[in-house]
Amino acid sequence: MKILNKAELRQAEKVLQSYLPRSFMVYGFLFGMNRNKPQTLEVVVDSWPDFKTIIFRPHQKNEYALFLSKVVTFFSTDEKILKRMLTEDNILDWNQYFEMIGIDICHVTILKGISVKSRQWSVEHLLELKDPNLLPQLRVNSDLEPRISSLNESHISLVNKTWKYGGDEKSFQLVKLLISHFPTCCITDEEGCPVSWVLLYDCYAMGMLYTAPEYRRRGYAKILISTMATRLHSQGYPVYCYIQEENQLSYSLFKKLGFTEDPSYRAVCYEFNR
Fold first, then answer.
1. Is residue 12 within 8 Å of residue 26, measured between CB atoms?
2. For the segment 147-203, what is each residue's pLDDT rounded down to a tens digit?
3. Around Cβ 152, how many Cβ atoms within 10 Å?
């Protein structure tokens, strides 16, 4: 087992890039870490430099650790090594509450075999935009163009109360972190108040897409996704998202905009010790 330092994190990013799209979650976190974005995780591998399993776990001494939910994720090409690291090597504190996100569904058997209280709370599609030229050409009215903008810290409460997992202090702190340090895109009304928006999570996945009910069916979501995706591609960022299986509306929207998926892949999210 080895905890990676800054130079090794940069090397690991290159290795994980070769495993895309299945490695998107861990690759996205590393992408942010290597560009000095705020993070709450430390990275552990089974061996170095030829690792088979990489685990992201809560960094207990991180300045954000007290305010945000504890998150774990991993990527592995070797089931035996993964099982050993999760169950025998004391990599994780199984007495604490944490969320495990973006996990390849093929590893569910290992997770179910861990003798702690757990709950699978989401099964998700993984969609990516490989080429911005796949985006359809959208006509944006001239009166709407000046209202395409970015969120700022005065909008944190608005986003927090409309997010399906928001409404409490931890979600407020997460939204604050994302708006303050990661790209966002929004459309405002005539008074400058956001009525539709999309954010990036700290794993660089697009998310928190929302449009106020009275502004729906105007194509705002298509405009935001296309604008954000084009911007991310131009800056060399990954462009991808996770969409829950039951959210057929969002799934159809992203597919129509040129996002694709590996149909054999699903990601799952678990929580432990709730």
1. no
2. 999 999 999 999 999 999 999 998 999 999 999 999 999 999 999 999 999 999 999
3. 12
- The whole-angstrom separation of Cα 248 and Cα 244 is 8
- Identify which of 142, 116, 138 has the alpha carbon closest to the alpha carbon of residue 225: 138
CA 86 – CA 8 distance, rounded (Å): 22
Which tokens hold the place of 87?
């169950």
From residue 199, how far is each of 67, 96, 105, 106 by CA, in Å?
19, 29, 25, 28
Beta strands 194-200 and 206-211 are: antiparallel
> Which string of DSSP letters, residue by residue, matches 100-148?
EEEEEGGGHHHHHTS-S-EEEEEEEEEEE-S-GGGS------TTTGGGE
Helix (H) or strand (E) holding 92: none
Question: Are the C-beta atoms of 110 and 80 separated by less than 8 Å?
Answer: no
And the tokens for 36? Answer: 């000095």
What is the DSSP annotation of 198-230? EEE-TTS-EEEEEE-GGG-SSSHHHHHHHHHHH
Work out whether strand 98-104 and strand 71-76 pair parallel, antiparallel, or are unpaired: parallel
Strand partners, 234: none
Question: Closest by alpha carbon to 128, among 249, 261, 253, 229?
Answer: 261
- How does pLDDT run across 76-113, given as a tens digit for each residue? 999 999 999 999 888 999 999 999 999 999 999 999 99
Give which of 26, 22, 21, 1 is closest to 13, Cα–Cα.
26
Query: What values do phi and psi take at 253, rounded to 5?
Result: -60, -50
